[in-house]
Amino acid sequence: EDKRPKEVISFMQGRLTAAYAVLNDHLDGREWIIGDQITNADLSCCGYLYYPEPFGFDRKDWPNIDAWLSRLSETPGWKAPYDLMPGSPADRA
């Protein structure tokens, strides 16, 4: 923790918040990022949002992203990234 530059972390968290706002606004009134069904765009963008721990992401703060992630997780055959990795999340922390 002592070696982590707090100014850089703060700056990057600000950039992440701006990116969340863009995605949340884009999803307003839409079920998917592009078109009327799940596409590679959805799968490419969602991955990091299933790893909220290091980024301070809380789905309840972003209602359109929250609904979109719920739709993704309800897709037949869906597995959360942690479920696809060996071990437990605590082992990877």
TrEMBL record:
Residues 1-93 form the GST C-terminal domain. InterPro entries: Glutathione-S-Trfase_C-like, Glutathione-S-Trfase_C_sf, GST_C. Pfam families: GST_C. This is GST C-terminal domain-containing protein. It comes from marine sediment metagenome.
